[in-house]
Each structure stands twice: as structure tokens, then as C-alpha cells.
Design goal:
Elements (H helix, E strand, L loop, with lengths): L6 E3 L22 E7 L3 H12 L6 E7 L6 E7 L17 E2 L5 E4 L1 H5 L15 E4 H14 L1
Parallel strand pairs: 2-3
Antiparallel strand pairs: 1-2, 3-4, 4-5, 6-7
Length: 147
């Protein structure tokens, strides 16, 4: 399966990132992978998530499932626990949740930026970093309806 990423994030050199031994350069160092499936079911999204979970620098995989009409709005946030992602059949695997007003995805700023725990964060950088999924999806719906 050819894996094409929908969105990713990795820190910049100025942050003072510490590359894991498996990562050769900063361009390969991405801590968050986002997979968005419109008209795709969870089996397809889970296949892609499994690919991203295999990357050494990835700390978070966010999978988002939307229907074309946005009636279906779901997400799953997967993160490393004790250095490993839970497997597909693991009882600790993250649940699929609705994207509603309470859909706020937290990211540990140190993991997000590839910094050791306790290291100084860039000035003004929040910890945790909060992503409000509902607002993002609502913005998509508003743009679609305006066009």
C-alpha cells in the first residue's frame, strides 16, 4: 500500500530538537501524523495509521473520519505509551470518539517538539498544545456551504 500523508508536524532546528538514532535528518523527523478519511471507513484509516505508527519519531497519530455531508465526524488519537503504540487488537488502543464541542486533542509540548521532558519550551509555547477538532470541522462545513 502506498502511503500518502494528509498532514504532519515536525519541529524546526531552532527548537533544539534531539533526533532519535533511527532518524537521519530533520526532514524525516515528524512527531504527529494526521490521516483524514472522507467516504473512507475505519479499516482503511487503521491501515494507514499502522504505517505511521511504525515511524521512529512519530509520537501521535490522529485519524479523522468524515462523511461528505459532515454528518459523520469521528476521530481517534493514538499516542505512544511507554515508548510503544498499542497494537490494533490491544485493549489499550484509543477509542473512536465523536467530533463534537468536547473534541479537544491534547499534545504534550515536549513530545510534539522532540524535546526531552523538562527541557525549556520556546517562549509562548503552550503545554499542553490543544487542538479543537470541532472548530476545524465546522470551518470546513462553513467553507463548503459558502462555495
Amino acid at each position: 500500500m502506498l502511503a500518502e500523508l494528509d498532514c504532519s508536524f515536525g519541529p524546526t532546528e531552532e527548537v533544539g530538537v534531539v533526533l532519535p538514532p533511527e532518524v537521519r535528518n530533520l526532514q524525516e523527523f515528524q512527531t504527529v501524523k494526521v490521516e483524514i478519511g472522507v467516504s473512507q471507513g475505519w479499516p482503511s484509516l487503521d491501515c494507514k495509521s499502522a504505517i505511521w505508527r511504525g515511524y521512529a519519531s512519530v509520537e501521535y497519530v490522529v485519524s479523522i473520519r468524515l462523511s461528505p455531508s459532515l454528518r459523520i465526524r469521528q476521530y481517534r488519537l493514538e499516542m505512544r505509551l511507554g515508548g510503544q503504540f498499542p497494537g490494533d487488537d490491544d485493549g489499550n488502543r484509543a477509542s473512536i470518539l465523536p467530533i463534537d464541542q468536547n473534541a479537544i486533542v491534547p499534545f504534550d509540548a515536549h513530545l510534539l517538539l522532540g524535546l526531552p521532558a523538562g527541557a525549556a519550551l520556546p517562549r509562548g509555547f503552550n503545554d499542553p498544545v490543544l487542538l479543537h477538532l470541532f472548530d476545524l470541522v465546522e470551518g470546513i462545513g462553513l467553507r463548503e456551504n459558502a462555495g
